[in-house]
Please model this.
Amino acid sequence: MPPRKKLTAAARRAQLIEVGRKAFAKKGYEATSVEEIAQRAKVSKPIVYEHFGGKEGLYAVIVDREVELVVALISEAISSGSPRERLEKAALVFLTYVKDHPDGFAVLTHDAPVTATRGNLSSLLNDVAERVGKVFAVAFKQAGYDARTAPIYAHALVGMVTFVGQWWTDARKPPVEKVASHLASLAWMGLRHLPKQPTPITKRSTS
Amino acid sequence: MPPRKKLTAAARRAQLIEVGRKAFAKKGYEATSVEEIAQRAKVSKPIVYEHFGGKEGLYAVIVDREVELVVALISEAISSGSPRERLEKAALVFLTYVKDHPDGFAVLTHDAPVTATRGNLSSLLNDVAERVGKVFAVAFKQAGYDARTAPIYAHALVGMVTFVGQWWTDARKPPVEKVASHLASLAWMGLRHLPKQPTPITKRSTS
DNA sequence: GACGTAAGTTACGCTTTAGTAAGTTACTAG
DNA sequence: CTAGTAACTTACTAAAGCGTAACTTACGTC
Model:
């Protein structure tokens, strides 16, 4: 079979999503043109419109997929275990996501179209932080702390992980497990009582 | 004197910077048009070009001012005191900045123009984190910790403060001093050893 | 009150880009 | 081989937006 010239609708759709993700990841929504995406997919512009109705349609699909993915990963990670385990697993899972899906992550960090009400990384993380905050509020109340301060800690933790993830994107620094472990140590023990060698939640063969 | 129709060059320039900051804060660089800015300033488009040479010129001036301001504030905050005091002061100063200059902060959070090499909030914060990381590396070495892990902690702390700042923008939650104090507590003691009532670095008359 | 100049406007050219209408090509089933 | 159709292209419209050339108006000054 000589190289195909026409793809099935499903295959083309999938390809456009991939290409679009790369493009939006690089320049953000506004600075990326439909023409550009079409060219990279070696296809003409109307194809994009046939599949997604327009620029925002494609963007929406791409962002939605990433959001669903991240939410699923985080939800799974914090579904069980001790508080500390949950935090470490969440950090691990998020960092792994950033590592394995750099384009998707980049798309989320860029500005969303002005018309969109949601879809930013900020809004996603705020949702996560809010959920964590509610859990904290309960725990704080039981322990005799001021429950109104819970959101501060929740957002601090989410911000911590996120920003490390962003930094971690650029340069291939230490392995994810180590980083996640350090983050968990910081959150749990503070700088004052850092262990010399943080104990990873998952034992690895790396010494 | 009846209401003026013409402003001096300096006054108009200042006004355009203010108006531009608000506009860029709302929709980001790409989605904001020069026409729009001119209209809001009740002036015609060429005025903007006279003063700043173009859209990017105006944007560059606005961002530069904000970056300089933040850098100056943070530098001052971490110039002296114990490590913990420095962290708390830095958090306090940053949160205060976010509170007092919401538009400037918003501009920094949006995407920079594609042509720009720097000017993002990310790059600014990465610089800060890198500086902190170097200080940490020295301290880690002295204390017998792995100095290569220092950047993790540095970035974690910066991310912590930043994300809380972002969250704090929307809703007027607890006073800055409290928030900064909680952040410092978290960083120093960890969730495991949180004090019931964090002691603010600056004694206030509030209770 | 005339006049020089800083400040400002109108009206345009040109490029980019979102979106569409109408026609064309490659694959596939009989 | 032939037809039907799903996939695709060419060629366009309309609008938005950056930037500029040429002209006008208000203000201070003698």
Notes: DSSP finds nine helices and no strands in chain B.
